[in-house]
Automatic annotation (TrEMBL):
Protein known as: EEF1A lysine methyltransferase 4
Catalysed reactions, semicolon-separated: L-lysyl-[protein] + S-adenosyl-L-methionine = N(6)-methyl-L-lysyl-[protein] + S-adenosyl-L-homocysteine + H(+); N(6)-methyl-L-lysyl-[protein] + S-adenosyl-L-methionine = N(6),N(6)-dimethyl-L-lysyl-[protein] + S-adenosyl-L-homocysteine + H(+); N(6),N(6)-dimethyl-L-lysyl-[protein] + S-adenosyl-L-methionine = N(6),N(6),N(6)-trimethyl-L-lysyl-[protein] + S-adenosyl-L-homocysteine + H(+)
Matching Pfam families: Methyltransf_31
UniProt entry keywords in alphabetical sequence: Methyltransferase, Phosphoprotein, S-adenosyl-L-methionine, Transferase
UniProt family annotation: Belongs to the methyltransferase superfamily.
Lineage, highest ranks first: Eukaryota, Metazoa, Chordata, Craniata, Vertebrata
Gene3D superfamilies cross-referenced by the UniProt entry: Vaccinia Virus protein VP39 (3.40.50.150)
Methyltransferase domain mapped to chain residues: 42-183
């Protein structure tokens, strides 16, 4: 089958939590020996949020991450993936709403999503200001992600969304996590956000949250147009 690309190795690396071993050049991300030297696949309990029909869970399973719970809103998708991977005993497939995850608090070492939040925002026209409904949806999902993560656990979000758009959604003290972001890819850049539960927001991200809260509380600006006599107005502009 097709071998995993750079994207997979980035995810593989951050799921393992071995961030102290960042390579000294991007080229080494494709060096399999680098991962063999630096990386151990200690058992981690992983939640794949909005798995779809992606091969990512299977690739990770093949790499030694066998305890992966996959959830998706589509029952047809879940049934199809369960059948396709029926020989992988520790890959479980569940139909579930990301806003109401049916798991106890603090059970996952890693929650991973790749494009799931992008799909939830696909109808948004202004990336600087998402609609009230979309903001509410994302808030519900992110609260649930934080809830099911263990202390020190990581939420890994893979997206095309640049930091100045996506960090606006992630930078909330309520979620009880820090935010780091990385990018990779050549023709198209992917962005990976690594949010670690139990760590505080950086001063920069905390300031972003305060600014956004202040903007949200500010009353809308009313624009008053002075009424003028239409005939005088037309005369004044030379018509």
């Amino acid at each position: 089958g097709k071998s995993p690309g750079t994207e997979f190795y980035f995810i593989f690396f951050y799921v393992g939590g071995r961030m102290e071993y960042l390579p000294d050049s991007n080229a080494r991300y494709k060096d399999v020996n680098y991962w063999n030297e630096r990386y151990s696949t200690e058992e981690k309990n992983i939640l794949m949020l909005g798995c779809g029909n992606s091969a990512l869970s299977y690739d990770m399973y093949q790499a030694g991450y066998t305890s992966i719970t996959n959830v998706d809103y589509s029952s047809i998708c879940v049934e199809s993936m369960a059948e396709r991977h029926k020989d992988c005993a520790q890959l479980s497939w569940l139909c579930m709403d990301a806003r109401r995850l049916a798991f106890p608090d603090g059970v996952f070492d890693v929650v991973l999503e790749k494009g799931t939040l992008d799909a939830m925002l696909v109808e948004e026209s202004d990336p600087w200001k998402v609609s009230e409904n979309a903001a509410k949806l994302l808030h519900q999902v992110l609260l649930e992600v934080s809830r099911v993560l263990k202390p020190g656990g990581r939420f890994i979000s893979v997206t095309f969304a640049q930091p100045h758009f996506r960090k606006r959604l992630y930078a909330r003290a309520e979620y009880n996590w820090s935010i780091k972001h990385y990018h990779y890819g050549s023709s198209f850049h992917y962005f990976m956000y690594v949010l670690t539960k139990g760590e505080e927001l950086s001063p920069e991200d905390a300031a972003l949250e305060r600014r956004l809260l202040k903007e949200a509380e500010a009353p809308p600006t009313d624009v008053n147009f002075q009424e003028v006599d239409s005939e005088d107005f037309l005369n004044n502009i030379g018509l």
